[in-house]
Design goal:
The structure is a homodimer of 423-residue chains. The first copy, chain A, contains twelve helices and 21 strands. In chain A, α1 runs parallel beside α8. In chain A, a hairpin with a 6-residue loop joins β15 and β16. In chain A, the strands form six sheets. The first copy, chain A, has a five-stranded parallel sheet. In chain A, strands 17-18-21-20-19 form a five-stranded antiparallel sheet. With 423 residues, the first copy, chain A, is of the alpha/beta class. The model of chain A has no long low-confidence stretch (mean pLDDT 95). Chains A and B meet through α8, β17, β18 and α10 of A and α8, β17, β18 and α10 of B.
Chain lengths: 423, 423
């Protein structure tokens, strides 16, 4: 039995590793078209920023490790040109054909360059190296970042840290790809304080005297290969999979940034490419490919991003998103101390919660602050996974001690306020 | 209609405030035997430590505030000598009688002095002032702390910060009142590094050349008043209440450190006096006393304490506790990075999870580390409130971004490892 995995970054290697763990006898081959495998692409902004010294530091394991420790064969520079499901084989660009019994498609996503000539991107280690080199050699003073998604905002921060003046162009009216006017206002205000110019509803036209343009206009799933093989795509444009990561073609799984996943709040299929989700999907695909039964329930839509020092986290639906989905939704936003008011490390934190008016079901949340933001959004994310009601949420037994949290956690205070608005 | 509340710290004032919010016409009187109301007793160690400058900084609101802003009458120095449920009245030590329609008993708890003559305690603002004065005037060099519960360990840290040599005597074999040998070993090792001497299974006999002895040997619920009035106590020795905070006597509620609460994992009544729980119980008692229907589900048993800079958090049951409760339990402990490995603020964190072998139901957890510990234990606490299975828990959509968390959160890594041990 041979498992072939196309793609050697997050989902692909999670799938291969999980399959190996569950089946010692499987032959496992990973085909990666690039030169690097198993690297944390999400760390690239911090390499640019300067805290991560070398892009190599982002590599989790090298091919040798996988060969030696996990008996997983990895071929880099191996670009797959076609999948032939009837013959259960993949064809490499080189012409070579490889037969599989099970196949995991983990082809990832690629940046939309958006037609900005000469623009840098930040998707691969190569990209980061080129951009770093440009910064060191050309010493640009003014940069335009195209796109205010999380990569755009991380880039803006990294470039500010390098001393550049930065303007961020966003073609929509919202930051972070989230229909949320309140969040956009808060983030916009913070960017202003950090002297990053945010231009909303603004298409970058190449004008202005920028020495550097970086495009972070979004991603598209790499689905050509799958589509060419008769694998169905979903309405999102990414590969359609069930909760076992099976595609419509027998023996072929898809996982990671090339595939859809279910949103736990709406129940609908969505496409939210993120490293953490990619790894989970890969793990599930690997387990099923190895003959076990594993399922991935879906995502709450949790994300966190550092914006010029501020942690900005969201999960589930914003008020606007909830209404668009047909919920009769209400929301409440509070500002509170993140630790006991009198404790010297205490800082303000903002919490917003969204709920369905009649049922009281929690639909989403937003947390901004200096510290403990990930922890707080994770509590909301867990509650969403359980369709928790605001009434239950407000009495959760959350940790209390002055150095770590106030006696009423900001989450609970916000839930109490929100409770008043429910029917 | 008159609501009388006995006790003016956490639960009492939460009850009064909640009742006022829900019923503008209620007459509300709070009787507090001490001179201070509404103060954060949990902050006292940090006043001793030096970061909180004056004990007054721990006062949330004064009596004037409650009178003016909430139309709640507060009498300090008003000690209740007896409750007469048949006549619906309370008698003060002064002889004065006050009639009530609804009564909330929030008499709190008191420290067990444990018969150590001349020992200080740290339960009230007065206690803290005396201890601070002693430190400033007598400049003791060697201190013994009796009890390794959270107050004992906070005290040990505060005294170390004041330059004292500290020994902690604990009569049981465990720290933090938790039957958990693994946790005790980890905390013990950390205390050693901080040069706090931990003596387990050790009764303090007054020996040794200590210049200062502080007793933190535990708390007892203040139930005399209630018991004298025919209010039932539970097996824990605290006042028995239902989820509406009703006692067995009509019109009388109990809340806070004097009352029992349900443990969400075992379903049994327990007594875990904590400020956060006291406030929640008070809120529920106040709502019900004001004629609304509110319920308090119970506690997961979440706690967090700073031990010489290290955050130590637990929730639910330890392995030993789970086995004592009759669960066929397994546990897994891992050490992992709390943020992306390559991110410069990344530090090790320890996560332990406990589950029932056959069902896979999560039963408890422990997290230790420098940062994000409260957030991680809160995710476990929320999962316990929902009887979550390890299999669901391991795929929770937790926030990921290098500055805040690794791609596989330590919680998820631990759950994956634990999953292997399940039946």
């Amino acid at each position: 039995m041979r498992l072939v995995v196309i793609g050697g970054v997050a989902a692909g290697l999670s799938a291969a590793s999980r399959a190996r763990r569950l089946d010692r006898s499987l032959e496992i081959l990973v085909l990666e078209k690039g030169q690097h495998i198993s690297y944390a692409a999400c760390g690239l902004p911090y390499y640019l920023e300067g805290h991560v010294r070398r892009p190599e530091d982002l590599v989790v394991h090298n091919a040798d490790f996988f060969r030696r420790e996990r008996e997983i064969e990895i071929r880099t520079g191996a670009e797959v040109a076609a999948i032939a499901p009837m013959r259960r084989e993949v064809q490499l660009r080189s012409g070579e054909r490889i037969v599989y019994d099970k196949l995991v498609v983990a082809t990832g996503a690629q940046p939309v360059t958006g037609g900005v000539p000469g623009a840098f991107t930040l998707h691969t280690i190569e990209d980061a190296r080129k951009l770093r080199e440009f910064l060191d050699q050309k010493r640009p003073r003014r940069a335009a970042v195209v796109g205010a998604g999380y990569i755009g905002l991380e880039l803006a921060e990294a470039l500010r840290s390098n001393g550049l003046d930065v303007a961020v162009y966003e073609s929509s009216e919202n930051v972070l790809n989230r229909h949320d006017a309140g969040l956009t206002a808060l983030v916009g205000k913070h960017l202003e304080r950090c002297r990053v110019e945010l231009k909303l509803n603004a298409r970058f036209d190449g004008g202005g005297s920028y020495d550097l343009v970086v495009s972070a206009a979004g991603l598209l799933p790499n689905v050509m290969l799958a589509f060419g093989a008769g694998i169905e795509l979903g309405a999102t444009g990414a590969i359609r999979v069930n909760e076992r990561m099976e595609t419509n073609v027998a023996g072929i799984y898809a996982a990671g940034d090339c595939a859809e996943m279910r949103h736990l709040v709406t129940g609908r299929m969505v496409w939210v490419p993120l490293g953490s989700t990619a790894n989970k999907m890969g793990r599930v695909a690997g387990a099923n490919a190895a003959g076990k039964r594993a399922r991935f329930q879906g995502i709450a839509g949790t994300s966190i991003v550092r914006v010029c020092g501020l942690a900005v986290a969201t999960t589930g639906l914003s008020l606007e998103m909830a209404r668009r989905e047909g919920f009769d939704a209400v929301s409440e936003r509070i500002e509170a101390h993140d630790r006991a008011r009198y404790f010297w490390t205490s800082r303000p934190t903002t919490v917003e919660l969204v709920a369905e008016r009649r049922s009281g079901r929690l639909l989403g949340g937003t947390v901004l602050g200096d510290a403990d933001v990930a922890g707080r959004i994770n509590v909301v994310a867990s509650a969403l996974a359980h369709r928790m009601l605001v009434d239950e949420f407000q009495y959760l037994d959350l940790a209390y001690s002055p150095p770590y949290a106030p006696v009423w956690d900001p989450l609970l205070v916000c839930a109490q306020q929100l409770e008043k608005k429910l029917g």
